[in-house]
Design brief:
Elements (H helix, E strand, L loop, with lengths): L6 E4 L3 H12 L3 E5 L3 H11 L4 E4 L3 H6 L6 E4 L5 H10 L8 E4 L5 H13 L3 E8 L1 H7 L2 E5 L2 H14 L2 E2 L2 E2 L1 E5 L3 H29 L5 H11 L7 H11 L9 H4 L9 H12 L4 H13 L2 H7 L12 H37 L5 H7 L10 H11 L10 H9 L1 H14 L4 H14 L5 H12 L3 E2 L6 E4 L8 E3 L1
Parallel strand pairs: 1-2, 1-4, 2-3, 4-5, 5-6, 7-10
Antiparallel strand pairs: 6-7, 8-9, 11-12, 12-13
Helix pairs in contact: 1-6, 8-12, 8-13, 8-15, 9-10, 12-13, 13-20, 15-19, 15-20, 16-17
Bound molecules: 2'-monophosphoadenosine-5'-diphosphate.
């Protein structure tokens, strides 16, 4: 076979075939392969006219079709399937060839695979591809891990097929080994938090302000013209405005209120615990989905008393709506700040040199959390790459200062009325935790020393100390 293809794609389910088409539509010759050949044939029949495809029946045929250094993209299920496909193809490749995993792998698996393949002379590139089917076909956001040499070859291809914002491609090399998949995971964690915050804002507008779904859809549509402008706010307006054709009821009222998850939110929270990164809004969003699915627990709690419900006048509802917008914005800034800080924490732990301005830059297009304010986040990190928090940047600090009262009033109202706002409350609590002069962690240290002699440090002297709590004199010794 003539080795003419710029890239090969194996795994032609939804994401694989969309990416293969995207490459082909941009003029690349794409060799395509799938374990079950019928998928390859159907791609050729339906979309073969879109560009130059080279269909391959076997792994050997696929490899033989690739230009050197070979670029082979794996688009199969994360986990065992990815390992099986790597095991099948790696022996067929040569020094300097590249395997790209564009699936949703756990970053720890990517680190393991990269180390293993590096020893065999193969570049392993873990690439987080965001944006679902639409994104994969028309321009995703691509978070690429792996060696600089591999990005030198792959970068121009990814940057051609990715989303473009203001003339900039939404693809970048994030860092070595698992950095790309790590950032994709945190992207999904932020997505969970953002969606939960939006859902809580809707719930408040409905239960406290008394608006119906269609009215709230209009409110979100208006918000989408301001600083909250984002894909998620845009689609929220669409979903809320939709009427179920069968019943004539608001669509949101006929959907079961138990949220699913594929696990990337859970990975973010699990990893955050290991890194001691307090991504509390992501954690609350993930637990909120879990709680929604606890049917028997919800049935047990349902008869219990809640807060007071007082109808709002039209002007009160309008005022409250403006407060919710401000609280949503502040909470969103916190959620993104938590995710970006988690990336910084991971960079230190794993030795990644991550440019957060570039991360925010490629999140502006193609991916689910694309939002206007990511441009400001990008600018903030470009001006000060070592920024410890978005709130250390004067512009964001000013905005958060300006929304203090409404932010607190919205959380207070949710508590009084008994409307659950785990993510709003977590974001505000995080803010108050970090700005506190003194935290009650001092008391925790006293408790830990009391029952476990864990010792404590003092504010006025160096060293570790223990108080003899069991002795009548409660004397202190340095340990
Ligand atoms: P998507 O999310 O894009 O729909 P996915 O569920 O992540 O896709 O992955 C499905 C793809 O992985 C399919 O191409 C599947 O091949 P088949 O069409 O033959 O089922 C592929 N896949 C899954 N396990 C595989 C394995 N062990 N070896 C090779 N390919 C595998």
């Amino acid at each position: 076979m003539n080795a003419s293809a710029h890239i090969g794609v194996t795994g032609l389910a939804v994401m694989g075939r969309s990416l293969a088409r995207n490459f082909a539509r941009h003029g690349y010759t794409v060799a395509v392969h799938n374990r079950t050949p019928s998928r390859t044939r159907s791609l050729m029949e339906e979309f073969g006219h879109e560009g130059t495809f080279v269909p391959a029946e076997t792994a050997q045929e696929l490899v033989a079709a690739l230009q050197r250094p070979r670029r082979l993209m794996i688009m199969v299920q994360a986990g065992a399937a990815t390992d099986a496909v790597i095991d099948e193809f790696a022996p067929l490749l040569d020094d300097g060839d590249m395997i790209i995993d564009g699936g949703n792998a756990h970053f720890a698996d990517t680190r393991r695979r990269e180390a293993d393949l590096r020893e065999r002379g193969i570049h392993f590139v873990g690439a987080g591809v965001s944006g679902g089917e639409e994104g994969a076909l028309h321009g995703p956001s691509i978070m690429v891990g792996g060696s600089k040499e591999s990005y030198a070859v792959l970068g121009p291809m990814f940057e051609t097929i990715s989303a473009q914002v203001d003339g900039q491609a939404c693809s970048t090399r994030i860092g070595s080994d698992g950095a790309g998949h790590f950032v994709k995971m945190v992207h999904n964690g932020i997505e969970y938090a953002d969606m939960q915050l939006i859902a809580e804002a809707y719930d408040l507008l409905r239960q406290v302000a008394g608006y119906g779904p269609a009215e709230i859809g209009e409110i979100f549509r208006a918000w989408n013209k301001g600083r909250l402008e984002s894909y998620l706010v845009e689609i929220t307006a669409e979903v809320l405005s939709h009427t179920d054709p069968g019943t004539g009821k608001p669509f949101v009222d006929v959907v079961a209120d138990t949220a699913g998850q594929k696990g990337t939110g859970r990975w973010t929270v699990q990893t955050a615990l290991d890194l001691a990164s307090p991504v509390t809004a992501v954690a609350q969003a993930t637990f909120a989905r879990a709680a929604s699915g606890q049917a028997s627990l919800r049935a047990a709690y349902r008869p219990l008393p809640g807060g007071v419900r007082i109808p709002m006048s039209r002007s009160e509802a309008e005022r409250f709506t403006s407060q919710v917008e401000q609280a949503l914005y502040a909470s969103k800034v916190i959620a993104y700040d938590q995710g970006l800080k988690m990336i910084q924490d991971a960079a230190l732990t794993y030795g990644w040199d991550i440019d957060l301005a570039a991360v925010a830059g490629i999140w502006r297009g193609g991916c689910i959390i694309r939002a206007a304010f990511l441009d400001r986040i990008r600018t903030a990190y470009a001006a000060e790459p070592r920024l410890v928090s978005l709130l250390a940047e004067p512009g964001f600090a000013k905005e958060i200062t300006a929304v203090q009262v409404p932010w607190r009033e919205v959380v207070a109202a949710s508590v009084r009325r008994g409307v659950p706002t785990p993510a709003f409350a977590a974001a505000l609590s995080y803010y108050d935790t970090l700005r506190a002069d003194r935290l009650p962690a001092a008391l925790l240290q006293g408790q830990r020393d009391y029952f476990g002699a864990h010792s404590y440090r003092r504010t006025d002297r160096q060293g570790a100390f223990h108080t003899h709590w069991g002795h009548p004199d409660r004397s202190e010794t340095e340990v």
